[in-house]
Structures are given as structure tokens and as C-alpha cells.
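Progress note, sequence design subtask.
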């Protein structure tokens, strides 16, 4: 992980302590989707007729839920990349379980390296959940490195109703996208009630994992509970203060 920005990596996994890094697979045991919404991505690909003979890369794929579900539905050839080896191991298990291993390849890799080495794809999927690639402008410019000129970016993003320090609003998001040379071809704003239900289920699973870990490592009780509380707080903030959206982007010059 030497070239991956440590702070941004921790932010992407909501780590509240350096010590938590080794426990992440256990803290997230029993969860597959890890913050993404495969259903919205599937719907955008389906209604824009992008599901035939497409090469796809998912940068920061977690445990592979998005690509496995896409491969069940569409004729694709996909690569999923994540720096957490345990996530990739699980992703490969899911790919075998759902019989899509011939369509999807998962590998442990630093996505900062992937951006500079991968061949250009028809579709790039990226969940913007930290400043790993910088702000939105910087992120889109870097994602251009691995998408074909006539290709697409599927971007999961979060914005505020009113812009605040560190958080842009919908109009600013749209302006930045256009200034970077893209247009929003289609989008789905996440349903708030569905998001709440998903968050409750996920934090419930994490809570049980925390209880189990505390029984195994009682000296770590404080950092485990801090992580759980941080998850609960972030979910409430997401539900009440922000909006999540999945955007289908294409370059303006086509």
C-alpha cells in the first residue's frame, strides 16, 4: 500500500484508527455491497442499452457485488480492482458461486497504479467516497486515462442541497462535470427510504461483528465501538444532510 494515500484509503473505509486496518475483513464480514448500489448501475446500463459486448472496469470494487450482478444480467468482460486482498478473495468466491468467473476477473491492485497501466475500457465504474483521486474535477481527469473516447463513466457521488465547505451542491457538480469535458447522459438519485433501510441492515451486521471482535480482543473495545458509532453517525448524516446519485457520463464531443 506504499503508493496509496494512507489518509484517503482510511477515509474510503471509514477507519477511525490505524489499528483498525487489520480488522476490516472481520468488521465487514457478512456484507457484500459495501456502499455501492448495483441495482442503480444495472438500471442505467439497461435503459441506455449498454449491456452488449462491453469491457468494464470497477475501480475500488470491494467484494465484487456490482460486477457479479452485472455479469449475471449482461454480456460483458469485466475487471474489478481493489487494494484489500481479503475483499478480492471474497469477490472471486462470489464469481464462482454465481458462475460468472469467465466474464469477470478480480485482482488486488492499487487503483492509482491501475489508472496508469490498464487498457482503455468501454465503461469505468467508480464510487467517489474519499479524496483518493482528489476532488471531482481531478477524479474525472484521472478516470479519463482508462475510458475510451466513446466510452462511459458510471460515477456514484454525494452532494449537498446547499454547498458547504468540502461539499458541493447539484448545480456545482453538474458544472464541474461539464467543465471537465463530460455531460450527464442519465442519472438516478438514490431513494432515501431505501437508503435508510440498507443502512440499518448494514449497521446491524457491523454491530454483531463488533460484539464478536470485542469478545476476542477486549483490549480493542474502544476502537471497535468508535468505528461502529462512526458508521451510525455517517449513515444519519447521509440520510439527512446529503443526496446520493449514480451518474452515467459521456464525453461532450460525441
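Output:
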Amino acid at each position: 500500500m506504499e503508493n496509496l494515500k494512507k489518509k484517503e484509503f482510511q477515509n474510503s473505509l471509514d477507519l477511525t484508527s490505524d489499528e483498525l486496518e487489520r480488522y476490516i475483513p472481520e468488521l465487514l464480514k457478512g456484507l457484500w455491497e459495501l456502499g455501492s448500489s448495483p441495482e442503480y448501475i444495472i438500471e442505467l446500463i439497461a435503459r441506455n442499452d449498454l449491456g452488449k459486448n462491453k469491457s468494464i472496469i470497477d475501480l475500488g470494487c470491494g467484494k465484487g457485488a456490482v460486477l457479479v450482478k452485472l455479469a449475471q444480467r449482461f454480456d460483458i468482460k469485466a475487471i474489478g480492482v481493489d487494494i484489500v486482498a481479503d475483499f478480492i478473495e471474497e469477490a472471486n468466491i462470489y464469481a464462482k458461486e454465481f458462475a460468472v468467473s469467465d466474464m469477470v476477473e478480480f485482482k488486488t491492485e492499487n487503483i492509482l497504479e491501475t489508472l496508469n497501466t490498464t487498457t482503455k475500457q468501454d465503461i469505468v465504474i467508480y464510487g467517489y467516497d474519499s479524496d483518493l483521486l482528489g476532488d471531482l474535477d481531478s477524479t474525472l481527469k484521472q478516470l479519463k486515462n482508462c475510458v475510451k473516447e466513446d466510452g462511459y463513466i458510471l460515477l456514484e457521488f454525494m452532494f449537498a442541497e446547499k454547498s458547504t465547505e468540502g461539499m458541493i451542491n447539484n448545480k456545482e457538480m453538474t458544472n464541474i462535470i461539464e467543465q471537465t469535458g463530460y455531460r450527464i447522459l442519465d442519472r438516478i438519485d438514490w431513494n432515501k427510504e431505501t437508503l435508510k433501510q440498507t443502512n440499518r441492515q448494514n449497521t446491524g451486521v457491523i454491530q454483531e461483528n463488533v460484539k464478536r471482535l470485542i469478545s476476542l480482543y477486549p483490549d480493542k473495545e474502544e476502537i471497535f465501538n468508535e468505528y461502529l458509532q462512526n458508521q451510525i453517525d455517517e449513515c444519519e448524516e447521509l440520510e439527512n444532510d446529503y443526496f446520493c446519485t449514480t451518474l452515467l457520463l459521456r464525453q461532450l464531443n460525441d
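Strands lie at 52-59, 75-82, 104-108, 121-127, 147-160, 182-189, 242-251. Work on this subtask will continue into the next period as scheduled.
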